């Protein structure tokens, strides 16, 4: 069975295109910059490129440039000589030397300090290694550099946090891995793949995804991309007892709240009518009668628009009178109109004017109302 990371799962056009780009990149020695959000598979691409290249006889070494202090990062990359700092008891070979003939994958390259960027640039230009504490260039190495970042380097260049010359050095071949939400057609295949991988790993029967659960998982945003999906599936596989994963098994962050409480339109019409009566006949306020059910989505925007239209019919298009009809204080006029506008429920008043005797227009049109509630 193939471990994950050995090949790209997915058959969207984007993934197929990336596979071609990987093959093409593997044929040359050019430096590569891989960009994309966290967890999209940048490291997977780097490994594939190395494996398909003639360098696969030698090592692919990885270094994460984030979170290491400069001194440590420098010694990791370039090595150090004995006695060059406290604790340097013996000479140490850096990763660039160890990767000679192979590839180095520099992850989160966007986090490097300006000083480290200068050192890296010098290495890229000369291929020479100077160990920390060494007084001259020790050796020349032949290493292919693949760098990755989830940062927008162009923005970092603009803010002078990333060297433009280094950017152009690294960015000879540029691969971009789009987030999962932009290639949702890959989600079923990834789910299936990781269900298989983790049930085999944990020695349990592979659970089936119920169609409604699958639909929810495809619709979910996956901010942590493939890594999030993979970890999520491992947890599901471990928790599952029934062999079927239905919507009930999915955590609440994956299932969006239903847009409207599941009531029939007829039931909602009755609810809206009784609310209308409570305001118009019972003189209860709109804020007590309508506000909460609307915010709880027990009534839709269409219901609210219908209620407003019914009121405007009675007031012949006057929002000022409507405010009072709906049991509110005259001073609530702006707050009410802003509320309608915010929820896109304002109804144009003009068509109600022609229903009867036109009133002198002393109101502000709905559109022009501004200010806070
Ligand atoms: N297309 C894919 N097929 C199979 N596995 C994948 C795929 N994309 C990502 N993965 C898996 O998802 C996880 C995250 O991928 P990877 O580490 O390459 O992401 P990344 O882009 O380097 O993230 P970060 O920016 O956080 O370092 C890994 O376990 C990897 O094996
Ligand atoms: Mg990574």
Would you spell out the secondary-structure blueprint of this structure?
Blueprint: H1 13-26, E1 32-35, H2 42-52, E2 60-64, H3 70-78, E3 79-80, E4 92-93, H4 95-98, E5 103-107, H5 114-126, E6 128-129, E7 139-140, E8 144-149, H6 153-158, H7 164-170, E9 173-176, H8 187-201, E10 208-209, H9 211-219, H10 225-239, E11 244-245, H11 265-280, H12 286-289, H13 291-295, H14 301-315, H15 319-325, H16 333-342, H17 350-353
Question: How would you sum up this structure, described in words?
Answer:
This protein is α/β, with parallel strands linked by helices. The chain is built from 17 helices and 11 strands. It has helices spanning 13-26, 42-52, 70-78, 95-98, 114-126, 153-158, 164-170, 187-201, 211-219, 225-239, 265-280, 286-289, 291-295, 301-315, 319-325, 333-342, 350-353; strands at 32-35, 60-64, 79-80, 92-93, 103-107, 128-129, 139-140, 144-149, 173-176, 208-209, 244-245. It binds adenosine-5'-triphosphate and magnesium ion (MG). The site of magnesium ion has 3 residues, from helix 2.
* DSSP strand count: 11
- Order of strands, widest sheet: 2-5-8-1-9
Bound molecules: adenosine-5'-triphosphate, magnesium ion
Biggest sheet descriptor: 5 strands, parallel
Contiguous runs where pLDDT drops below 50 for at least 5 residues: 365-373
- What portion of residues belong to β-strands? 5-15%
N- to C-terminal distance: 61 Å
Query: What gyration radius follows from the Cα positions, in whole Å?
Result: 31 Å
Shape: elongated
Helix content: 40-55%
Structural category is alpha/beta
* Average residue-wise pLDDT: 89
SSE string:
HEHEHEEHEHEEEHHEHEHHEHHHHHHH
Number of helices: 17
């Amino acid at each position: 069975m193939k471990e994950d990371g050995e090949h790209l799962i997915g058959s969207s056009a984007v993934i197929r295109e990336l596979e071609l780009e990987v093959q093409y990149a593997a044929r040359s020695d050019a430096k590569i910059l891989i960009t994309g959000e966290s967890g999209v598979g940048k490291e997977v691409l780097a490994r594939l490129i190395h494996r398909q290249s003639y360098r696969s006889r030698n090592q692919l070494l990885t270094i994460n440039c984030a979170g290491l202090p400069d001194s440590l990062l420098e010694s990791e990359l370039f090595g150090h000589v004995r006695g060059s700092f406290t604790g340097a008891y013996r000479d140490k070979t850096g990763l660039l030397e160890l990767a000679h003939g192979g590839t180095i994958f520099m992850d989160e390259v966007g986090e490097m300090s300006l000083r480290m960027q200068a050192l890296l640039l010098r290495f890229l230009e000369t291929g020479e290694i100077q160990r920390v504490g060494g007084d001259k260039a020790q050796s020349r190495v032949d290493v292919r550099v693949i760098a990755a970042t989830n940062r927008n380097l162009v923005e970092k260049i603009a803010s002078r946090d990333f060297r433009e010359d280094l950017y152009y050095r690294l960015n000879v071949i540029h691969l971009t891995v789009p987030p999962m939400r932009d290639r949702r057609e890959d989600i079923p295949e990834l789910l299936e793949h990781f269900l298989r991988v983790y049930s085999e790993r944990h020695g349990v029967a592979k659970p089936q995804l119920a169609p409604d659960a699958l639909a929810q998982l495809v619709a979910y945003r996956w901010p942590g991309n493939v890594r999030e999906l993979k970890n999520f599936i491992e947890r599901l596989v471990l928790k599952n007892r029934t062999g079927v994963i239905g919507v009930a098994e999915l955590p609440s962050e994956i299932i969006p709240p239903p847009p409207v409480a599941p009531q029939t339109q007829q039931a909602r019409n009755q609810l809206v009518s009784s609310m209308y009566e409570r305001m118009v006949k019972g003189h209860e306020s709109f804020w007590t009668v309508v506000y909460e059910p609307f915010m709880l989505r027990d009534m839709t925007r269409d219901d609210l628009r219908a209620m407003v239209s019914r009121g405007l019919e009675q007031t012949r298009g006057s929002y000022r009178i409507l405010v009072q009809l709906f049991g509110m204080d005259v001073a609530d006029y702006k707050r009410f109109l802003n509320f309608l506008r915010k929820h896109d429920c304002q109804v144009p008043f003009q068509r109600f004017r022609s229903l009867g005797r036109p009133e002198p227009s002393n109101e502000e049109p709905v559109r022009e109302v501004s200010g806070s509630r």
